Amino acid sequence: MRTITSDRLRLRPWRDDDADFLLDLESRWEVVRFLGARPTTMSTRADALASIARRRAVDHPIHGIWAMTTATEGRLVGNLLLKPIPVSAGETRAEPDDIEIGWHLHPDAWGHGYATEAARAVLDDALSRGVPRVLAVTAPGNHASQAVCRRLGMTHLGRTTRYYDTSNELFEKLPR
Ligand SMILES: CC(C)(COP(=O)(O)OP(=O)(O)OC[C@H]1O[C@@H](n2cnc3c(N)ncnc32)[C@H](O)[C@@H]1OP(=O)(O)O)[C@@H](O)C(=O)NCCC(=O)NCCS
Questions:
Q1: If you measure from the C-alpha of residue 106 to the centroid of ligand 1, how many angstroms do you get, rounded to a whole number?
Q2: Which value, to the nearest 10 degrees, does the dihedral of the CA atoms of residues 65, 85, 102, 69 take?
Q3: Where in this chain does the record put each N-acetyltransferase domain (predicted)?
Q4: Distance between CA 131 and CA 114 in Å, rounded?
């Protein structure tokens, strides 16, 4: 997985010594409450280490699941992902090759424009390398995440049940 940088941020592979941060992040209901059909908080450091191993296992020239840190101090602030999007069971309308972008920040790092800045860097990178479109899905009540999509210039395509076995607002970004 490559490292991607922006003005204030650095996206790098997750490391085992990030486990305490990841557990702190994903044990918070306010961070996971909008994720998937049955959101669950993380409860053990072992779970965090297992999750880090899965994140690091992404082996692709464009996709990734990155730890997001500040560029100068290397302080962990969250997670940024670009990967194939899970299609709902029995769904036939979804394109099998569609990929999604997603963001999960520690509440201490909300309100600084970090999610938008990091996602913009990853979107620019992916679209410039020939990815035909990038999707984002957000729970209907997740207005903060929908605002990120809008700041990124993503187009709102309406509500759909095509992904993650649940109802989501769907956003799309195409190459310029
Ligand atoms: C979704 C989530 C990442 C949004 O975080 P966020 O901090 O609101 O989003 P951004 O990083 O784009 O920051 C925008 C905010 O920073 C402010 N900001 C401050 N300095 C800024 C700067 N230099 N540049 C841009 N925005 C700045 C903006 O005004 C905006 O604040 P506002 O919403 O009060 O108007 C965050 O709520 C989160 O992690 N939620 C839990 C996980 C989750 O639900 N993920 C999405 C699943 S679909």
A1: 10
A2: 0
A3: 9-176
A4: 23
CA distance linking residue 68 with residue 50, whole number of Å: 18
Give the domains, in start order, of the chain with CATH numbers: 4-173 (3.40.630.30)
How far apart CA 60 and CA 62 sit, in angstroms, is 6
Burial class for 27, CB neighbours closer than 10 Å (0-12, 13-18, 19+): middle
- For residue 150, the CA-to-ligand 1 centroid distance in Å is 11
In this structure, the chain runs to a length of 176
Q: Tell me the per-residue pLDDT of 118-141, one tens digit each, with 9 for 90 and over.
A: 999 999 999 999 999 999 999 999
- Return d(Cα 106, Cα 94) in angstroms, integer: 31
111 CB near ligand 1 (under 6 Å): yes
Q: Is 9 in the pocket of ligand 1 (CB under 6 A)?
A: no
pLDDT score of 36: 87
Helices in the chain by DSSP H: which ranges? Answer: 19-26, 29-32, 45-56, 114-128, 143-151
Is the Cβ atom of 112 under 6 angstroms away from ligand 1? yes
Which regions in the chain score pLDDT beneath 50? none
Contact 106, 78 (CB under 8 A): yes
- Nearest one of 105, 98, 103 to 160, comparing CA atoms: 98
